[in-house]
């Protein structure tokens, strides 16, 4: 994903790193490269123009203040502007309404609507929501069957519509069904066409009117490149979209869509699809994506930073344990978390890992708030418990939970996270984090 763009931009950055001073000419030259790189990655032209103009204005201003080298300053501006282009903040689903909260899925056929509906259902079910899946795609019985099967596989309820009923009636009936049976969320999948057509747009507008969804998500295939932008524009004009899901980012898409869809629709990318599997949906992190695009994901820079900030002896100790692949206990886990926080939190750490490792690590879904909570829980344990979590039975867990001001489930979750972390450590130690930490001994 975004590989071409990344390698091109890292080339530019490398050249800039060699510059003692950045003149207006240098900026212009570097920006020409950035512009080419973005266009090659299928970012829409108006978006690129706007982007370059912003970077230029800000870079020239910054050169004057700079305690950084001019090259660093430019990279920083490009990074900030890329983040801004993709929406700055992580955008969550907004389901705060009288239940059922309706999520309407819109997009072309093949964009991944049905798959994404199921993925969302899975995610919300995990958050203990009672979820109903419904399909209004009366034109393609196979699409309905696909969703029914996914629902069955995920053990999520599926609304069985009566035969030969119009989409809007199905939608109304599904909503009634969800209302009377106290569902928290109803996800409504709709019919797509291979290209934009008036009938489809009229139908989805009618569905929107009937359902009054709190979320109207536009699903778009990242592999569509420039076309994605046109489709996004059409849907955005037809419907009050609340967010975008960019699918198939795991493919060999040039990924420019991630950069332009937000700019064109003004709507946040809420999720990205990263595999065909029901687990392959992740919240979209603009800042992380910008870092990856810039190829800041080099382990070298992490080592540099880590060398400065990490307690060397600790690192060596952990590295040794990683090397032997066992003996990594909760005490080490806590030390590891503290180091992560020193290095700017997990997000910053992930950004600095090369793409594939970062993705592996992301799959373990830790976030910074969770890191702090985990630390609190470990602090409430005795050294013996930390060394040997197996002795943690119900009464100890209750005591620890009370000590940390959390629920027993949280303690259980931590133990699960710890196991995951052990697994992650093992996989990273094969060539990534382990090697990196070992490198820090000296
Ligand atoms: P719909 O016609 O919009 O409902 O699209 P589908 O949900 O049927 O998806 C079309 C194809 O894209 C299916 O083969 C999906 O498995 C695949 N797909 C959907 N999302 C992703 C994704 O994020 N990554 C990958 N690799 N494939 C995806």
TrEMBL record:
Keywords: Coiled coil, Cytoplasm, GTP-binding, Hydrolase, Nucleotide-binding, Ribonucleoprotein, RNA-binding, Signal recognition particle. It comes from Thiobacter aerophilum. The keyword Heme does not apply. InterPro entries: AAA+_ATPase, P-loop_NTPase, Signal_recog_part_SRP54_M_sf, Signal_recog_particl_SRP54_hlx, Signal_recog_particle_SRP54_M, SRP, SRP54, SRP54_GTPase_dom. This is Signal recognition particle protein. It is an enzyme of class 3 (hydrolase). Its EC number is 3.6.5.4. It holds the Pfam family SRP54_N. Residues 268-281 form the SRP54-type proteins GTP-binding domain. The keyword Amino-acid biosynthesis does not apply. NCBIfam families: ffh. The gene is ffh. It is found in: Cytoplasm.
């Amino acid at each position: 994903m975004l590989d071409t763009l990344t390698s091109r931009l890292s080339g530019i950055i490398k050249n800039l790193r060699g510059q003692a001073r950045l003149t207006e000419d240098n900026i212009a030259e570097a920006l020409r490269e950035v512009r080419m790189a973005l266009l090659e990655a299928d970012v829409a032209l108006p978006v690129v123009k706007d982007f370059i103009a912003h970077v230029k204005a800000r870079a020239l201003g910054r050169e004057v203040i700079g305690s950084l080298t001019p090259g660093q300053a430019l990279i920083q501006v490009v990074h900030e502007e890329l983040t801004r282009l993709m929406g700055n903040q992580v955008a969550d689903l907004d389901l705060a309404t009288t239940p059922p909260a309706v999520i309407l899925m819109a997009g072309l056929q093949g964009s991944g609507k049905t798959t994404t509906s199921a993925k969302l259902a899975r995610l919300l079910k995990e958050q203990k929501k009672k979820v109903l899946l419904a399909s209004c795609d009366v034109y393609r019985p196979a699409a309905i069957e696909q969703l029914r099967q996914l629902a069955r596989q995920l053990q999520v309820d599926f609304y069985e519509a009566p035969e030969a009923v119009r989409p809007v009636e199905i939608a109304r009936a599904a909503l009634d069904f969800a209302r009377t049976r106290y569902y928290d969320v109803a996800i409504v999948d709709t019919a797509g066409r291979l290209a934009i057509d008036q009938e489809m747009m009229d139908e989805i507008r009618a569905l929107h009117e009937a359902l009054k969804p709190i979320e109207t998500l536009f699903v778009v295939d990242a592999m569509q490149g420039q076309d994605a932008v046109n489709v996004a524009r059409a849907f955005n004009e037809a419907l009050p979209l609340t967010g975008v899901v960019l699918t198939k980012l795991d493919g060999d898409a040039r990924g420019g869509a991630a950069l332009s869809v937000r700019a064109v629709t003004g709507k946040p990318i809420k999720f990205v699809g990263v595999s065909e599997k029901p687990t392959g949906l992740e919240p979209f992190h603009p800042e992380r994506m910008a870092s990856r695009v810039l190829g800041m994901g080099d382990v070298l820079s992490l080592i540099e930073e880590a060398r400065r900030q990490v307690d060397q002896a600790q690192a060596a100790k952990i590295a040794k344990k990683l090397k032997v692949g066992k003996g990594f206990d909760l005490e080490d886990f806590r030390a590891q978390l503290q180091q992560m926080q020193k290095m700017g939190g997990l997000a910053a750490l992930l950004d600095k890992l090369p793409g594939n490792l970062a993705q592996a690590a992301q799959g373990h879904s830790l976030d910074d708030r969770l890191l702090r909570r985990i630390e609190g829980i470990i602090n409430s344990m005795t050294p013996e418990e930390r060394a040997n979590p197996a002795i943690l039975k119900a009464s100890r867990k209750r005591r620890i939970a009370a000590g940390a001001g959390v629920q027993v489930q949280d303690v259980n979750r931590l133990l699960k996270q710890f196991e995951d972390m052990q697994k992650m450590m093992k996989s990273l130690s094969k060539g990534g984090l382990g090697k990196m930490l070992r490198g820090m001994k000296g």
